[in-house]
């Protein structure tokens, strides 16, 4: 029913690229000052976390981890870039010329769930090498986690029916590629974006737009929908999906089956009251003997619209704008904060932005049924808390050591499967779409009392 392009796991990213200018100027000016006063080499720990979940959602999804690791590897300065940094001293430029991250990175694996104050990513090294990574890390994780968190809610609402990501035209051309990756991580079945398919090996899907039907007219200018359908079937086969709402939907369905026969793969509806239309179209298809012809729907769907169609005869959803923009939450609101200097905890105390100092790890406890209970955050170098008879999962894993990527990190498909398994562990109310408290509490143990 859906045409899929199976791509090998290749990448169109250049083999040699620089991510160093995906940054903010103040990171370089801080570096300049730190090199001047001798603080650049102080051992520091920075942490990525979120103080709250956007729009009072119940959980967030960690996404972009693999892209962050690649960005850190590619964080080098070219001579062309260095030549533009006329606000820096020669000694700082020499430091950047030879820069390679040599520190340690630990964090939640991609596809893990997170909650307020979960220590999602921990970066350790000198102040100089850690501070300049802030913007690129947050750019990736905020965007990807926002999309994945929204997409996971849509997958839950779809209740097992596949969703195709088709939002490329509703966002920046390169954001479309990484949004497709994040949506696939969250459980979407395919993407319309060819670059995402090529770069990440995501199944690609697509048939035709309304322009295809409109193209086919008779000599007198009247529509010839049958000609459009016939040509598409001759090119793509009976398993294709015909777009039947260019003119009159009832007539479009009748024409589709008249041309293709009852073995047509699917019909797509991209407008109107989708609930009422799908029921009517399903009845019409069955009446024409096309019992196995699937119904694909699109048209500004989000998790709430998908949930509203759960009782209707929809076989496949196509989602665009809402998923690539985070469905009302375009950022995950993650921050990158200094939490430890020379093994001494430091913490911001600003009103509304208070945080817990010190490097951290986390684990999640579970009942014997597998249902998650809470997250426990404890000192990075401290002993693991006693969980009693509860089962637990260590959430923080090594990602980089001495600037080198840990071997055997999960693939995109492995992370996708992992997320699907984690969603099942949430208490049933944690999967609700309504606004409420986070599904799990985050509890700190082993830190000095305030």
TrEMBL record:
SUPFAM superfamilies: Nicotinate/Quinolinate PRTase C-terminal domain-like, Nicotinate/Quinolinate PRTase N-terminal domain-like
Post-translational modification: Transiently phosphorylated on a His residue during the reaction cycle. Phosphorylation strongly increases the affinity for substrates and increases the rate of nicotinate D-ribonucleotide production. Dephosphorylation regenerates the low-affinity form of the enzyme, leading to product release.
Enzyme class of the recorded protein, top EC level: ligase
Keywords: Glycosyltransferase, Ligase, Phosphoprotein, Pyridine nucleotide biosynthesis, Transferase
Entry EC number(s): 6.3.4.21
Domain of life: Bacteria
Pathway(s): Cofactor biosynthesis; NAD(+) biosynthesis; nicotinate D-ribonucleotide from nicotinate: step 1/1
Keyword Hydrolase in annotation: no
Catalytic activity: 5-phospho-alpha-D-ribose 1-diphosphate + nicotinate + ATP + H2O = nicotinate beta-D-ribonucleotide + ADP + phosphate + diphosphate
GO biological processes: NAD+ biosynthetic process via the salvage pathway
UniProt KW Glycosyltransferase keyword: yes
Residue span, Nicotinate phosphoribosyltransferase N-terminal domain: 22-142
GO cellular component: cytosol
Molecular function in Gene Ontology: glycosyltransferase activity; nicotinate phosphoribosyltransferase activity
InterPro entries, sorted: Aldolase_TIM, N/Namide_PRibTrfase, NAPRTase_N, Nic_PRibTrfase-Fam, Nic_PRibTrfase_pncB, Nicotinate_pribotase-like_C
Domain called Nicotinate/nicotinamide phosphoribosyltransferase: residue spans: 164-350
Its biological purpose: Catalyzes the first step in the biosynthesis of NAD from nicotinic acid, the ATP-dependent synthesis of beta-nicotinate D-ribonucleotide from nicotinate and 5-phospho-D-ribose 1-phosphate.
Family that this chain belongs to: Belongs to the NAPRTase family.
Name listed for the protein in its UniProt record: Nicotinate phosphoribosyltransferase
Organism: Corynebacterium occultum
Gene name per UniProt: pncB1
């Amino acid at each position: 029913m859906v045409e899929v392009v199976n791509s090998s796991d290749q990448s169109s990213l250049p083999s040699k690229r620089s991510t160093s200018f995906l940054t903010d100027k103040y990171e370089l000016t801080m570096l300049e000052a730190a090199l001047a006063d001798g603080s650049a080499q102080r051992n520091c720990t920075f942490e990525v976390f979120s103080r709250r979940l956007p729009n009072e959602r119940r959980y967030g999804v960690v996404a972009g981890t693999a892209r962050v690791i690649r960005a850190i590897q590619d964080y080098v300065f070219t001579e062309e870039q260095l030549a533009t940094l006329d606000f820096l001293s020669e000694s700082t430029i020499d430091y950047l010329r030879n820069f390679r991250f040599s520190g340690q990175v630990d964090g939640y694996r991609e596809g893990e769930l997170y909650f307020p104050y979960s220590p999602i990513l921990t970066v350790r090294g000198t102040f100089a090498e850690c501070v300049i990574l802030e913007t690129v890390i947050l750019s990736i994780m905020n965007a990807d986690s926002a999309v994945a968190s929204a997409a996971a809610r849509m997958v839950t609402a779809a209740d097992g029916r596949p969703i195709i990501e088709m939002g490329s035209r509703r966002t920046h051309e390169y954001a479309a590629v990484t949004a497709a990756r994040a949506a696939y991580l969250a459980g979407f079945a395919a993407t319309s974006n060819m670059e995402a398919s090529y770069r990440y090996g995501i199944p690609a899907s697509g048939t035709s737009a309304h322009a295809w039907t409109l193209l086919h007219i008779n000599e007198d200018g009247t529509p010839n929908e049958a000609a459009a359908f016939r040509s598409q079937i001759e090119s793509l086969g009976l398993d294709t999906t015909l777009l039947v709402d260019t003119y009159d939907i009832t007539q479009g369905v009748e024409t589709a089956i008249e041309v293709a026969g009852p073995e047509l793969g699917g019909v797509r509806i991209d407008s109107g009251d989708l609930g009422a239309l799908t029921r009517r179209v399903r009845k019409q298809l069955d009446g024409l003997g096309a019992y196995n012809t699937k119904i694909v729907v699109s048209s500004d769907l989000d998790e709430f619209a998908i949930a509203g169609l759960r009782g209707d005869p929809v076989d496949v959803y196509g989602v665009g704008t809402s998923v690539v923009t985070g469905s009302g939450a375009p950022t995950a609101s993650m921050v990158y904060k200094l939490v430890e200097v020379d093994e001494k905890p430091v913490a911001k105390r600003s009103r509304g932005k208070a945080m817990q100092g010190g490097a951290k790890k986390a684990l999640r406890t579970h009942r014997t049924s597998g249902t998650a209970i809470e997250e426990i955050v404890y000192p990075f170098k401290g002993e693991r808390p006693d969980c009693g008879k509860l089962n637990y999962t260590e959430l923080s894993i090594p990602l980089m050591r001495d600037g080198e990527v840990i071997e055997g990190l999960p693939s995109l498909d492995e992370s996708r499967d992992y997320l699907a398994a984690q969603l099942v562990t949430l208490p049933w109310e944690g999967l609700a779409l309504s606004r409420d408290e986070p599904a799990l509490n985050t509890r700190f143990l082993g830190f000095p009392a305030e």
